[in-house]
TrEMBL record:
<protein>
    <submittedName>
        <fullName>DUF2231 domain-containing protein</fullName>
    </submittedName>
</protein>
<feature type="transmembrane region" description="Helical">
    <location>
        <begin position="86"/>
        <end position="104"/>
    </location>
</feature>
<feature type="transmembrane region" description="Helical">
    <location>
        <begin position="12"/>
        <end position="34"/>
    </location>
</feature>
<keyword id="KW-0472">Membrane</keyword>
<dbReference type="InterPro" id="IPR019251">
    <property type="entry name" value="DUF2231_TM"/>
</dbReference>
<keyword id="KW-0812">Transmembrane</keyword>
<feature type="domain" description="DUF2231">
    <location>
        <begin position="6"/>
        <end position="159"/>
    </location>
</feature>
<keyword id="KW-1133">Transmembrane helix</keyword>
<feature type="transmembrane region" description="Helical">
    <location>
        <begin position="41"/>
        <end position="60"/>
    </location>
</feature>
<dbReference type="Pfam" id="PF09990">
    <property type="entry name" value="DUF2231"/>
</dbReference>
<feature type="transmembrane region" description="Helical">
    <location>
        <begin position="125"/>
        <end position="147"/>
    </location>
</feature>
Length: 159
C-alpha cells in the first residue's frame, strides 16, 4: 500500500523517520553521556530505535513507488541515493542501542555473568567505553544522513 485515498504515503512516512531517527540518536547520545538519563531512559531508547528501524524500509519502499510515478528526475534520484543509505545507519543505531542497554541493565548482566566463567569475562568498563563511542559515532552519522536525505528530498519536491 503506497497510497492513501490516491495520495502518495511517502511524504507521511518521511515524517515518522524524520522524528524517530533524530529522537533515537539524541536519546542514545544523552544515554551515553549522562548516566542519570541512561537509567531513566532504560529500554525506551532501544524501543524507539526499533520503531525507527521499522519505519525506514516502509518509507523507502513508498518512496520508490512515488519515484516510479513521477518519472526520471535527477533531483529525485539524488534524494533516493541518500534515502537508500539511511538503513545502513539506522540498523547499527538500533543494534548498538540494544547492546548499550543490555550492558547497563543489571538483570541482563547478572544473567550473562552467571553463564560466563570469571576468567573469560571482559571488563565491563572497556566494553561500555567501546560501545559508547561507537553509539555516538553512529548516532551522529544517522543524524547527518537523515538531514542530507530530507534536504535533498525537500529540494526535489520544491524546485
Amino acid at each position: 500500500m503506497n497510497t492513501i485515498n490516491g495520495l502518495p504515503i511517502h511524504p507521511l512516512l518521511v515524517h515518522v523517520v524524520v522524528v524517530l531517527v533524530p529522537l533515537t540518536a539524541l536519546m542514545a547520545i544523552i544515554g551515553v553521556c549522562w548516566p542519570a538519563a541512561r537509567a531513566r531512559l532504560g529500554i525506551l531508547t532501544p524501543l524507539v530505535a526499533l520503531a525507527a528501524l521499522i519505519s525506514v524500509p516502509l518509507t523507502t519502499t513508498a518512496g520508490e513507488s512515488l519515484e516510479e510515478r513521477v518519472g526520471p528526475n535527477p533531483a529525485i534520484e539524488h534524494h533516493a541515493g541518500f534515502g537508500e543509505q539511511v538503513i545502513y545507519w539506522v540498523g547499527p543505531l538500533f543494534a548498538l542501542a540494544v547492546l548499550w542497554w543490555a550492558v547497563h541493565d543489571e538483570r541482563v548482566m547478572a544473567t550473562i555473568h552467571t553463564r560466563i566463567p570469571a576468567s573469560a569475562k571482559l571488563s565491563q568498563r572497556v566494553t561500555a567505553l567501546v560501545l559508547g563511542v561507537a553509539l555516538i559515532v553512529v548516532a551522529v552519522g544517522s543524524l547527518y544522513i537523515v538531514y542530507r536525505t530530507g534536504d535533498s528530498g525537500s529540494r526535489a519536491a520544491w524546485s
